[in-house]
Write a structure and sequence with these properties.
The complex is a heterodimer of chains A (254) and B (487). Chain A has 254 residues and is of the alpha/beta class. Chain A is built from 9 helices and 11 strands. The two termini of chain A are 20 Å apart. Classes of the chains: A alpha/beta (254), B alpha+beta (487). Chains A and B meet through helix 4, helix 5, strand 5, helix 6 and strand 8 of A and helix 13, strand 12, strand 14, strand 16 and strand 17 of B.
C-alpha cells in the first residue's frame, strides 16, 4: 500500500481551475467519508462523492448474488439521511440483514422493475428527484449513454447513486469492464473471516478493490465488513502493519 | 352477500335485539307464507321452523342501501327524491311523469326495474306524501294511482297503521275499535286530541293533503370535473399535453374550493369516431398541484391512440380525499424530511402499485415469513427484527436442497454440494433452532429447522439449514437446504 504523495501547490491550483471550468459548485464537492483514513485518503476530496454515480460489483460468485456488494452499499447508504430507493428486477434482499448493517427497513423503498430498461428509467427518475438519501439499483447492463445520463442526473440534484452490477450468469460478468461514466468503481470479494479462538465464524472480511476513481488512483484494501452503523474497519492484520506475507498467500490460495 | 346468500325461495328472517330478547324483526315472503310474523322470539321461530335461515338485521346498511336506491331514482325519474326509512323511497314526480309515458307507466317501469334487480316493490302516486306512503304499503295492487280529489275515498278503506302513527297510538285505537282511516277521519277531533295529543290530526291532515309536507331531497356529491370541446379534432401529443395543462388548473381550483386533493384522476378523451380513450393515474397521497398532475398525465400520453382525432377532453377527479394543511417543520427544531410522494406517484404510474413497497417486520421465527410488503408511504413501523443472530443479506426465494454430510445430531456439515459445486466447510456457527408455527397450522406442530452459518475454504459464507432436529423423523426430512448467502 502506497501513501498519498504530499500535496503539490501547482497541481492543486490546476485542479481548482479545471473544476471551475467544469462548472462544478461546492455542493458537488460534498463527500461521504468512509471514516477509515486509509480509504478516504485515496479518494478525491477525502470520501465517496455525493451527487455522483458509483458502481459496485461482487467478486467471483458474488457477482451473481451480490451479497457482499449489496451489504457494502447498504453500509454506505446507512450513513446518509432520508429515504432510499432500491431498484431491482429480482427481489432477494433480506431486510433484517440490512438492518444489521445500520439501514433501517422503513428507510428503504423497493421498486421491482420488469427489465433493465425500467430499472435505468426508475434510477434516473430517483436521482433527478433529489429528495432521497441515496438511490441503489441492481442492474446488469449499464451502457455508456445510460451511465452518462445517470451521472448528469446525480450531478444536477446532488443525489448519491449506487449501481450494483449483478449478472445472471458468470460468463456475462465480462460486461463490467466496458467503460461507463461512473465516478468510482468498486469490487467487493469475500475473504475468510477473522479467525476466532473458539469454533464459529468471525466478523466477515472483504477484499475491497477501487478499480477506478475519476481524478484518483486505484487501490485495494482488506476491510472488515460493515458493523451495525454501516462503518467499515480496516482489517486488524493490515492496520497493525504486520504479517503481510500471510495475507498475500491467503489471497493467492483463495 | 355473494355466495353466502341463502336461496331466494328459502324462508328467511332478519334477527335483532329488542330489549333483552332476540326477536325476528322482519321476514320474507316464503317465511310469511309459513305463518311467521315479525316480533316473535328467535327461539320460538326456530322451534316452529327449523329450516328457517336467520340473518342479523343491519339497519345502517339498509339505510345506506335506500340512499343509493334514492340516488338511482334521482338519476332516472325525478330530481326531488328522499329515502323514507325503513323501507321506502319518496319522489316528487310533479312534472316529470310525462317523460316516462304517464303515471301508471312510470310506476310499473319502476317496479319492473326493481323486480329485475331482485326486489319486490310496490309503488303509488297520490296528492300527498302521506297518502302515497299509505297506498304503497297497504294498497292492493303493486301499482296504484290516485287521481286528484279521490284521496279521501281511497284512504278510507286502509288500516290506521298506514297513517305513520306511533305504534302505541295504533294499539290504543285498535282497543277502541277503530280499524280504518275512514272511521278515524269521521270521529270528532277534539276528544282525540285530548286523549292522544295532536299526532292523529296532524297525520290525517298530511294524508289528505290539508297541510304541506316537505321532501328534503338527497344530494349526490358529484366529482370535480372539467372538460373542453375542440372545434377541430386534435391528435398530436404536444397538443394533448398543452390542453391537459390547461384543464389541470381549473380542476385544482375546483378541488381547492372543496378542500380536497385527488387520489385517482381520469382523463377521458372522446374521439371523433365516438370511441373513448382514457388515462388513469393514481397518487399515493391527496394532491392538488396542477403541475404535478399534468406531469403524471403527460407521461402516459403515448399509451393512447388518438384515432382520427380527439374532439372533447374531460378531466375527472374520480377519487378525491380531504387534504389537510400541515405545518412545515421548522429547520430550527428538526431536519426537514423531503417529500417524496411525487416521486412515488411517478414510479407507481410507471411500474405499477404492486411493484413499489417497503418491508415491514412480521413476528415469525421462520425467515421467509418474517417480513411483509407494505405500501411505500405507510406510517413507520416501530417494531424491528431481533438482532442476536447475523442474517444473510440475500435470501433465496425458496430454499434450495443441497447434498451435505454432517455429524448427527447437531453438528454443522463437513461439506455440501450446491449447484454442482462442492464446498468444504472451514468454520460454522449454529445451530439456531426454529420451530414450526403450530398455532397457525396443525401440520407444523412437530416441524423444526436447525440453521447454521458456514464458511467454506474460500471465505464464502452461506446460511444452511437441516429440515428436522437430526434425531426425530417427525420433525422433518433431515435433508439439508441452502437458504441465504452472507456477504
Amino acid at each position: 500500500m502506497t501513501m498519498r504523495p504530499e500535496p503539490k501547490p501547482a497541481i492543486e491550483t490546476l485542479r481548482t481551475a479545471i473544476s471551475r471550468l467544469e462548472g462544478q459548485s461546492d455542493r458537488q464537492h460534498a463527500v461521504l467519508p468512509f471514516g477509515v483514513r486509509e480509504i478516504d485518503s485515496r479518494l478525491p476530496n477525502g470520501g465517496l462523492a455525493l451527487g455522483a454515480l458509483h458502481e459496485v460489483t461482487g467478486g467471483g460468485n458474488d457477482a451473481l448474488h451480490c451479497a457482499a456488494a449489496g451489504q457494502f452499499c447498504a453500509g454506505i447508504v446507512a450513513r446518509t439521511r432520508g429515504k432510499v430507493l432500491w431498484i431491482l428486477t429480482r427481489q432477494t434482499v433480506f431486510a433484517p440483514a440490512l438492518k444489521q448493517a445500520g439501514l433501517a427497513a422503513q428507510r428503504i423503498i423497493y421498486v421491482e422493475a420488469a427489465s433493465d430498461t425500467d430499472v435505468l428509467a426508475c434510477f434516473e427518475e430517483g436521482l433527478r428527484h433529489g429528495g432521497l438519501g441515496a438511490v441503489v439499483a441492481e442492474v446488469s447492463r449499464l451502457p455508456m449513454t445510460a451511465s452518462r445520463r445517470l451521472q448528469l442526473a446525480a450531478e444536477t440534484s446532488g443525489s448519491l447513486g449506487l449501481a450494483i452490477r449483478r449478472w445472471r450468469r458468470s460468463t456475462d460478468t465480462a460486461d463490467f469492464w466496458q467503460p461507463t461514466a461512473s465516478v468510482t468503481r468498486w469490487r467487493v470479494s469475500v475473504l475468510p473471516s477473522t479467525p476466532l479462538p473458539v469454533p464459529g465464524v468471525g466478523r466477515s472480511r472483504w477484499f475491497l478493490e477501487l478499480l477506478r476513481a475519476r481524478s484518483g488512483e486505484c487501490a485495494v484494501f482488506e476491510v472488515e465488513a460493515c458493523d451495525d452503523k454501516g462503518r467499515l474497519a480496516l482489517s486488524s492484520t493490515l492496520a497493525n502493519r504486520s504479517n503481510q506475507e500471510t495475507i498475500g498467500k491467503r489471497r493467492t490460495s483463495a | 352477500m355473494g355466495r353466502d346468500a341463502p336461496a331466494p325461495d328459502a324462508p328467511l328472517a332478519l334477527v335483532g335485539r329488542e330489549k333483552q330478547r332476540r326477536v325476528v324483526l322482519s321476514v320474507d315472503l316464503a317465511a310469511r307464507k309459513l305463518g311467521l310474523r315479525p316480533g316473535i322470539p328467535v327461539a320460538k321461530a326456530l322451534a316452529l321452523y327449523p329450516d328457517l335461515a336467520l340473518m342479523d338485521a343491519d339497519p345502517e346498511g339498509d339505510r345506506l342501501g335506500l340512499e343509493r336506491l334514492a340516488l338511482w331514482f334521482q338519476h332516472r325519474i325525478a330530481p326531488i327524491v328522499a329515502a323514507d326509512p325503513p323501507d321506502g323511497v319518496v319522489l316528487d314526480t310533479t312534472g316529470s311523469d310525462h317523460l316516462h309515458g304517464g303515471e301508471p307507466a312510470m310506476l310499473s317501469s319502476m317496479v319492473h326495474r326493481l323486480a329485475e334487480a331482485g326486489f319486490r316493490a310496490k309503488a303509488a302516486v297520490a296528492d300527498s306524501w302521506g297518502a302515497a306512503h299509505a297506498l304503497a304499503r297497504y294498497g292492493r295492487g303493486s301499482v296504484s294511482v290516485v287521481r286528484p280529489g279521490e284521496t279521501q275515498a281511497i284512504l278510507a278503506d286502509l288500516p290506521i297503521k298506514a297513517l305513520r302513527l306511533s305504534p302505541s297510538i295504533v294499539a290504543e285505537l285498535a282497543t277502541l275499535g277503530v280499524a280504518h282511516i275512514g272511521t278515524l277521519a269521521t270521529m270528532p277531533r277534539a276528544p282525540l286530541a285530548l286523549r292522544f295529543g295532536g299526532q292523529i290530526a296532524h297525520r290525517l291532515d298530511q294524508a289528505f293533503g290539508y297541510t304541506d309536507e316537505v321532501i328534503t331531497p338527497i344530494r349526490s356529491v358529484s366529482p370535480v370535473e372539467v372538460s373542453r370541446n375542440f372545434a377541430e379534432p386534435i391528435a398530436a401529443a404536444e397538443t394533448i399535453a398543452r390542453y391537459i395543462e390547461k384543464l389541470a388548473s381549473p380542476l385544482c381550483q375546483g378541488l381547492e374550493e372543496r378542500g380536497q386533493g385527488v387520489r385517482h384522476l381520469d382523463l377521458i378523451l372522446h374521439r371523433v369516431d365516438s370511441h373513448k380513450a382514457t388515462i388513469r393515474v393514481a397518487t399515493a397521497v391527496p394532491v392538488r398541484n396542477a403541475k404535478r398532475l399534468t406531469r403524471l398525465l403527460c407521461e402516459k400520453i403515448e399509451t393512447i391512440d388518438p384515432g382520427f382525432g380527439i374532439e372533447r377532453m374531460v378531466l375527472l377527479a374520480s377519487r378525491a380525499e380531504p387534504m389537510e394543511r400541515r405545518q412545515i417543520v421548522s429547520s430550527l427544531i428538526a431536519e426537514e424530511e423531503h417529500d417524496i410522494s411525487d416521486l412515488i406517484d411517478t414510479l407507481t404510474n410507471r411500474v405499477g402499485a404492486q411493484a413499489l413497497y417497503r418491508f415491514a417486520p412480521v413476528e415469525s421465527d421462520l425467515p421467509e415469513r418474517s417480513f411483509c410488503r407494505v405500501p411505500p408511504l405507510s406510517p413507520d413501523e416501530t417494531r424491528g427484527w431481533p438482532e442476536h443472530w447475523p442474517r444473510p443479506p440475500r435470501l433465496l426465494g425458496r430454499p434450495e436442497p443441497v447434498q451435505a454430510m454432517a455429524e448427527l445430531p447437531d453438528q454443522p456439515p463437513l461439506f455440501f454440494i450446491w449447484r454442482g459445486i462442492r464446498h468444504r466447510v472451514k468454520c460454522a456457527d449454529g445451530p439456531e433452532r426454529v420451530f414450526g408455527e403450530w398455532w397457525k397450522n396443525d401440520a407444523e406442530l412437530t416441524i423444526s429447522r436447525d440453521y447454521f452459518r458456514v464458511e467454506n475454504t474460500h471465505g464464502e459464507r452461506f446460511w444452511l439449514y437441516r429440515a428436522g432436529d437430526g434425531e426425530h423423523g417427525e420433525t422433518g426430512s433431515q435433508g439439508w437446504f441452502l437458504h441465504g448467502i452472507f456477504g
